[in-house]
Amino acid sequence: MSTILELDGVIAGYGAGDILKGVDLSVEAGTITCLIGPNGAGKSTVLKTVSGLLRPRKGTVTFDGHAIGRLSPKARLLLGIVHVPQERSLFPAMSVWDNLLMGGYLIKDSKVLRDRLDEAVASFPICRARAGEHAGSLSGGEQKQVELARTLVLDPRLILLDEPSIGLDPKSRQLVFESIRALSSSGRTILLVEQNARSGLAASDFAAVMESGRVQLTSTGASLLENPEVARLYLGAGTAGHATVLAPSTDSPGPSARTPGEEPR
Amino acid sequence: MHALVQGVILGVLTGGVYALMASGQTLIFGIMKVVNLAQGAMVILGAYLAYQLFVSFGIDPFLAIPITTLIMFAVGVAVQLLFLRPLRREDRSELSLLVTFAVALLLEGFMSITWNTSYRSINTGYENASWTVFGYQITQVRLWAFLLSLAALGLLFLLLNRTRFGRAVRATVQNPDSARLLGVESDRVAALGFGLGAATAAAAGSVYGLLYPFNSGSHYDLISRLLSIVVLGGLGSVGGAVVAAVIVSTSSAIVASTVSPSWSEMTFFVILMLVLLVRPQGLFGTVGRGAL
Fold first, then answer.
1. Which residues in A lie closer than 8 A to residue B177 (C-beta atoms)?
2. Which end of chain B is more exposed for a tag (fewer CB within 10 A), N or C?
3. Which residues of chain B make contact with A83, given a CB cutoff of 8 A?
């Protein structure tokens, strides 16, 4: 396996404050990696620094050997990085089909666009069945399917998914995770942020636990599921959200967290 | 009854022209969340350009529209680049109201210097021609103005709904972050969108110059009407602006023809207040973001 994405000492934030306080993370090509952690740990901010919605103040973001930290979101899209944000990201008053077309906004060649649309529709048949309907009229689970289909139109290499199961009923959630698995089995790399840590870890090859703007622990998804400390903090009923430092450990292959320069509070 | 029907005819025909002016304003708001207080001044500048082309070259105001819209498109893009883009960069978009007001004053000053402040009107020779249909008078120029506005709105509709650029504009209005994540350059859409708004002002300006005498200060009256229409229709909704323009101008015309012209101006604002009491987001506005 080769590393496709690497964050090294990334510091980023809004206004005067830093949200990411030195994030080190590497993601292997073709895998699903899940970020878990309490609210405010900086999980979504990591995705934003990778997709270009936020530029890092310090540190480097490397994608497939290119330093991308200073590139525009558009340039990163062209490299094959697609970001599906947490909140509903469809254009509600546009048709499902127009939403898909927006997924291919950067594709100038109409034949390529047509082929990609066919491919997306083949993976997510709902896009054809509901093509003419306003995206806003679809249920939450259906909208997520269309979002994933729209992501496919750009034929991405790295898909950043922010809380794909949020607000979905259990059946839709299962469907979304199955779709994510299918995207991964076609060779794409997926970096996932998931509040529902149990589902996220179960679906992932690797996982990283974030706290207070840093990656504290990385391992395989399966071993984190069995880690009693992680279970107590993030898999229990409503116990997540307070800051307890987890000892950094890199006892398994996959995304590696370097020891942070200073201990978090 | 006769006065009522005559009022409806006049109101609908005039409403079309206001719809065109207001569609640009609501488009700009939809894309950038900028209330463009210079929209009225841009309409008047469009009227002056049509006036000048008519006086200097004898070009009919209707035929001048392709020229004036192109010029005003460029003016709109320039205004966005020079005055509004820096605010977006600095994250100070809330100042845009003041900045567009300053642009309105700047345009007013430019027009006062270029054409002085005496009232101008475009006297084509056909401005008073009219037909009488079943006893009702239809002013030819108002009918042409109405049809032209419909055609311009139709073009705007096609542009927004059938082109790649239009899709990007609608996407930006509905979910700007998501549009950016798909590769839409929001700065570019904002500049072109502002240009488009100014272009509709130019098209409406040619017609305005045919219908009413105007001077550089006429934009104050115009902008208060346009703001009322845009708010009534729902900020950011082009369809809402069209419906609101027709409602407002028809009811004003009906009151003018059946009650008294002195009450007609007030009708405008009474309707606005009543609608806002019941639907603060306007007739077709959404509580969240607008939708084109």
1. 53, 85, 89
2. N
3. 181
For B160, nearest residue in chain A (alpha carbons): A94
Q: Residue B217 — pLDDT band, cuts 50, 70, 90?
A: very high
| CB B41, CB B104: distance < 8 Å | yes
Q: Map residue A3 onto helix, strand or coil.
A: strand
- Residue in A with minimal Cα distance to B182: A103
Tokens read off for B49: 């350009």
Reported as a pLDDT band with limits 50, 70 and 90, residue A6 is very high
Query: How many angstroms away from the CA of A64 is the closest CA of chain B?
Result: 20
State whether the Cα torsion B268-B271-B275-B278 is positive or negative.
positive
* Partner-chain contact B167 A105, CB within 8 Å: yes
By C-alpha distance, which of B213, B241, B238 is closest to B227? B241
Which of B:26-65 have CB within 8 Å of A?
none
Residue A245 has pLDDT above 50, yes or no: no
Report the complex ipTM: 0.77
Report the C-alpha gap between A43 and A16 in whole angstroms: 19
Domain count, chain B: 1
Task: Give the range of the structural domain holding residue B33, as residue numbers without chain letter.
Answer: 2-288
- Inter-chain touch B167–A74, beta carbons under 8 Å: no
Domain of B249: which CATH number?
A: 1.10.3470
CA distance B291 to chain A (A): 6
pLDDT digit string, tens, across residues A68-126: 999 988 899 999 999 998 878 899 889 999 999 999 999 989 899 999 999 999 989 99
Across the A:B interface, residue pairs with CB atoms under 8 Å apart total 62
Reported in sequence order, the residue ranges of chain B that DSSP labels E, i.e. its strands, are 130-133, 136-139
* Nearest alpha carbon to residue B205 among B102, B54, B97: B54
Cα(A62)–Cα(A49) distance, rounded to whole angstroms?
11
Is the distance from CB of B223 to CB of B54 less than 8 angstroms? no
Rounded CA gap, A195 and A175, in Å? 17
Q: Name which of B174, B183, B185 is nearest A94 (Cβ-Cβ).
A: B174
Q: Is B36 helix (H, G, I), strand (E, B) or coil?
A: coil
CATH 3.20.20.80 fits A1-80+156-265, yes or no: no
Give the per-residue pLDDT at A257.
45
- B-chain CB neighbours of A116 within 8 Å are none
| Distance from C-alpha of B244 to C-alpha of A79, rounded to nearest angstrom | 46
Q: Does position B238 have pLDDT exceeding 50, yes or no? A: yes
CA distances from B187 to A170, B5, B46 (A): 40, 47, 25
DSSP A137: G
Give the pLDDT of residue A97: 94
Using the Cβ of A113 and the Cβ atoms of chain B, whether some distance falls under 8 Å is answered with no
Cα-only R_g, chain A: 18
